[in-house]
Design goal:
The protein is mainly α. About 75% of the residues lie in helices and about 0% in strands. The chain has one domain.
Amino acid sequence: MKFKNFVIPLIIFLVGLILTYIGALFKIIHFQASFITGNLLISIATGLKVLAVILAIVKLIFIYRK
């Protein structure tokens, strides 16, 4: 199994992780930039992390079927 197959899901997961930390920071300091709030950032980050895990599972299924 090559690491190269999982680069895209890994990048998406890391972006989600970064957005989670930024969203938590926004919530701690009660910061709001226009419509961007901590809750919105954490929600987007959770969606991205779920998408990354689903993509990785699909790639694993396709690799093991070959």
